[in-house]
Design brief:
single chain; mainly alpha; Tetracycline Repressor, domain 2; about 0% strand
Length: about 200
């Protein structure tokens, strides 16, 4: 029987081990045995806490998404509440934050996206994340744009985030947060110019 308080210690350990193993061998090679060995625990612990590899991947992505949400909030709190462009770029910056572009996190995202197409629980997580991003962008853009234009532009920025992120993830040199933000900032300035002049 697990000791009281063990989940608080073991779960983050197992999430880290999952990302490390996905980084090394990919999702298909990331077996419960390899993950448990990496975490230094028995494979029974994974089945006990998560019901197996699927549950562990879901918890791993929930952890990554919680971190993204907290980072977005922190970036927005630091941005000028009256500067629409700065607030949109705070959201963009959170998506290219240091943690989100670490190799193990990037490969976990890629594995998650690929698996979400075939798994209803992971697909639901992806949809929540997508809606949250669009909602945040739309909210900020509506401070300067008509609702329809804000929606259109939010979709454009989200597509740029995902596209630049994916291209960078597949690049041997990795993702360049600076370059990503420069490209999106250029798009944003050009789109906002007619409304802010």
């Amino acid at each position: 029987m697990p000791k009281v308080g063990m989940p608080e210690i073991r779960k983050p350990q197992l999430v880290e081990a999952t990302m490390a193993v996905i980084d090394e061998v990919g999702l298909s090679g990331a077996s419960v045995t390899l993950i448990s060995k990496k975490a230094g625990v028995s494979s029974g612990i994974i089945h006990h806490y998560f019901g197996g590899k699927h549950g562990l991947l879901e918890e791993t992505m929930r952890t990554v998404l919680r971190r993204l949400s907290a980072t977005s909030i922190a970036h927005l709190q630091a941005a000028d509440p009256n500067n629409v462009a700065a607030r949109v770029m705070a959201i963009v910056a959170a998506n290219f934050d240091g943690y989100q572009v670490e190799s193990k996190v990037v490969k976990t995202w890629l594995a998650f996206w690929a698996q979400a197409m075939h798994d209803k629980d992971l697909h639901r997580l992806q949809r929540v994340n997508e809606r949250r991003l669009l909602s945040h962008l739309r909210y900020e853009l509506k401070q300067a744009l008509p609702a329809e234009q804000a929606q259109f532009m939010a979709q454009g920025i989200a597509a740029l985030i995902d596209g630049i992120w994916l291209r960078g993830a597949l690049n041997p040199d990795g993702i360049s947060p600076e370059n990503a933000q420069k490209i999106i900032s250029d798009y944003l300035e050009k789109q906002l110019a007619p409304y802010l002049s």
